[in-house]
Amino acid sequence: MRQFYIFISFLFCALTSFAQVTYNGNGNSGFGGAVGGSNMTITDNGTDITITFNRGPGTFDNEMVIYIDSRTGGFSSTVDFADPDNGDKLRRAINGAGTFAGATRSTVNFPVGMEADFAIAVNTSFGGLWELVNNASFPFISGVGNPTSNTETSFTMSFSKADIGIGVSDAIEFTFVVTYLDGFGGGGVFRSDEGYGNGLPTGNPGTSDITFTTSELYRESTTYTYNSSWSPSDPNGTSTLNDIFLITSDNAIISTNTNAKLVTVSPGAALTINSGVNLNVADALTLESVSNSYSSLIPVGTVTGTVIYNRYVNDNGPINGNDLISAPVSGQQFNTFIGNNTNILANPSGTDVLFGGFDNDNATEPYELWDETDTTPLTAGVGYRSGIDPVAGSNLVSFEGTVNTGLVEVAINQGSASILNLVGNPFPSYLDAQAFLTQNAAVLDPSAVVIYGYNDSTNGTSADDYTIISAIENNTLNIAPGQGFFVASSVVGGNLQFTTSTPDMRIISTDDDFIAGRSAISNVNINLSNATDNFITKVYFTASSGLGLDPGYDASLLGGVAPAFSLFSHLVEENMDVPFATQAIGKTDYNDTTIALGVNANMGEQLTFSIAENTMPASIEVYLDDTLTSTSTLLNAADYVLTPSEDLNGTGRFYLRFSNSALSTTDAIFDGISIYGNQTNRTISIAGQLTEGTSANVYDIQGRLVTARPLVSDSTLQTIDASNLHTGVYIVKLVNGNAVKTEKVILK
């Protein structure tokens, strides 16, 4: 007995679509394999049903019967069928008996839950559909079609859903089994072991009874939509291979073995397959993306079927130019990939295309251009540079292959031209950036335990064209599926690890690949700009860092190289002449710390230093000291603008200095006190009446204490010997209890 559900007409139309399902015979070959080795494809258009039969290796010499259960009621076996027309081989085949006076009957027992209502019987002479009744002639409904010869490779049978008792507004759904037999076999019929549905023995049962244990199911396609919950119902364990899944938002979970025809995951949505569970997809599981949102697939279990990731890639152009990408699935050869993606920019006069890896041994042209005939497989975890032809109609690039569900390792090294390696997310889900950095810190350069994500200067808070992800900077960002990025190798190098357990780096996220992030940690971003460009350097204040190198916190410029126009810093301590895009110092080191800034810029171009972002306490004053002009600018209040008369290269002229005005309040005890450098006798002079208990500390421009001494209260002019100090800028700090006075002096 089949139970089916009547839907309101408009709701039915919204939730269903036309289906196509292919079924395979049971593989037996008692009559040569024409049916046992065959397959059948059933399709419908909402009204009419078509069965396409593709013959197996044997010839189609006998009768095939398809028993159909499509409505309430019916028959659990053929034991009481008694159509009196014994001269009709097709009716005899449905009956399972040749005469009703002593002939042997071969009864078909249908599987539990199936009660047949109709039967199709077909041979090379005719194919028809009959209604099943007991102890009477089967009512003939219609011809359905038949093969014209026993060697015909394929033939079709067609009938309407009304022919098998399904109402106009009802969904098409039925179960069926198939037998193959000789309708004039001796005194009755002679049945083969070939058919569809489980239960037929291996070896022809002949005139013996048979019992099916399972049947095949055909159901008009149902579209299941997941938008935080399933609609119209949860398909877990109940859907069929002609159903469609649309994951439009949130994370859909497959918790038991489930079938589907098509699965589509929208940008920003996710699909997780639980451990030990298989999602069997007949056609394809497709993951979609747009420029700032990507879909995710996390198969803790398995996916059977084709997986396609349609990945957004930037145009090849002056803005948003090119992209760094990776393959989110594995196994696809490049020539197949590029053949499917003709929107990738190609050389109009050659066979090379804008796609390839990064060669860190090549100082002049590190980005490779691959040939469209190259059969090299796309490698999991490797990054590639690519770009879309600006006149192409789509920015989506299609990757097709198998999903990486285990450990992926990629070797990195320091090349002869660069310490950089172009790698990428090997999973069709977001990659936990912090877990990746923690796992791989040992093989990364200590000054660059970070991720460099390409943004083509579209991120106004970045250093050059790259967004930095570190323990403190953009630390809420993760790596999108199919996203390539740079890492800097340690001297020794080794294998980067992308893990799916302990830890599982695969996560669900809706972040863009490299949108600017914000951190709760106090920081100041200093911007250097000219008429056409800008460049950012950043300083963070954290309890986990100090004035020296802090791997995972400090981040050098990409590849440890400062571009022709750039702004960077050197470490306050342990300076290795490495240009840093980000420097992390102690949580309270903004109390009178000075950082050397490096500037690369051309002469004659107006430059502007400004604060791009400042999350420090309001009492912290940020000064830019220019030692060439002996000026100090409070950047909290004003920009510093200059036009250099010579090219600027590196450090030595500009310094970033912090002072806490809450601590440097002079109060009355420092009124009238002046501090200055005496160039004649190479001393630092402190003039004015001091109170008892005052001390003086002198710091160099790097913030290091170079000398200290107590001061007396019975003299109005005191000096500090500076004969052993080099020419440069120094900070003198007077301290008396909680009162502090700071002053910059220059020794020439």
- Give the end-to-end Cα distance, rounded to a whole number of Å: 102 Å
How many domain regions?
A: 6
Give the percentage of residues in beta strands.
Answer: 35-45%
The count of strands amounts to 55
Shape: elongated
Gyration radius, in Å: 39 Å
Query: What class, by secondary structure content?
Result: mainly beta
Oligomer: single chain
Low-confidence segments:
1-17, 515-519
Helix content estimate: under 10%
Number of helices: 4
Major sheet details: 8 strands, mixed
Round the mean pLDDT to the nearest integer and report it: 89
Summarize the structure.
With 748 residues, the chain is mostly beta strands. It is built from 4 helices and 55 strands.
